[in-house]
Amino acid sequence: MQGNYQTDQPTGLGHLPALLARLLEQSYRDQRTRSATLCDKNVVHIGTSVDKSKLGAGDWAWGCGYRNLQMVFSTIISRPEFVQPLLSYPLLRPAIIHALHAPSIAIPSIHLWQTVIQDAWNIGFDPDGAAHFSGHLIGKKQWIGTTEVYVALSRLGLKCQIIDFPKPSAPNGQHIKLIQWVENYFNSTSNLTDNNSTIKPKIEITNRFPLYFQHDGHSRTIIGIEINSDCQTQLLILDPAKKIAAPLKKVCEQMSASHESSHPQTDRPLHQPGGGESSLLDRYPSDSLLRSTKPLAKGTRNSKPTELDLRTHPKLLGAHRLTLKELSKKKQYQILCVLDQVPKPADSDPDQHKLHTIRSLRIL
């Protein structure tokens, strides 16, 4: 990451759900996976920065909360029906308009999220959280948690829910109820890859938003659920502190380059019919990528297509799996989910004051 990692618009890696689905399909054929359900295909992996600059050695030690917030938001801003209400929030509008006319996604920087959170505090959101940071967050190198993510998204008019898992729900420190909750979340939606199908596919990509996932000292993004051949359920995650494996990264980058070259951007006015919100969606590949039988990304003018070796699925998928045993290393977890409800314009929602006090659902 170059320049100012706090104020620059983040750059991320797209297309991962599509590629992970391909690997999971191979795992299913190899009888290692029974089924898997993934989140919205448009989620972008955004990692913490380790680059040294005048600001110090990046945000790797404190930025995971912001990076997971950015990952969750990458799917929200990909929905055309969400764009216009989000434009009503003045602090966010410049970033969205800039992205509509550039080969990028309108994901706010760390600095902009700090500004949004501080603005929310100023109008009464989460007084306890505001007091913890002395009402000032902009420019600070301090980690944020679930409540700050809730405040940021709620200030934009998005409806969110926090789910607390304060202790293990089974012997040996296992978080069975956490796994069950996530499984129900991803499986309570219909298949998007073939809406006419009456048979649920074994490997499915849905329109569910990813989940913000917090525990003591770190946070990650849950992008799906998998049941292995032993009928053990495990989470599928993106971790901002971990780099994407080189083979996946290379294919993702070629897919992005190929898509951008076949969808050139034009400077169309925001409200022009056929432009604006729809041009934002044009950044993403169609579902045909998922149905393709060829494990290839198209080559660009200066490079040959990269082949993804599906036989390496145990190693490539392993970096994105979180098992019950691994979950038992921590006693407490929190999940934040964004409800799939189009937000009302941020400053015209008469019910927004009800969100000032943060409440959570506690599952024991």
Automatic annotation (TrEMBL):
Keywords assigned by UniProt, alphabetized: Hydrolase
Top-rank lineage group of the source organism: Eukaryota
Every UFSP1/2/DUB catalytic domain range: 55-255
InterPro entries: UFSP1/2_DUB_cat
Compositional bias ranges of the Basic and acidic residues kind: 260-270
UniProt-listed Pfam families: Peptidase_C78
MF term (GO), any: ubiquitin-like protein peptidase activity
Region (Disordered): 255-312
Name of the molecule in the record: UFSP1/2/DUB catalytic domain-containing protein
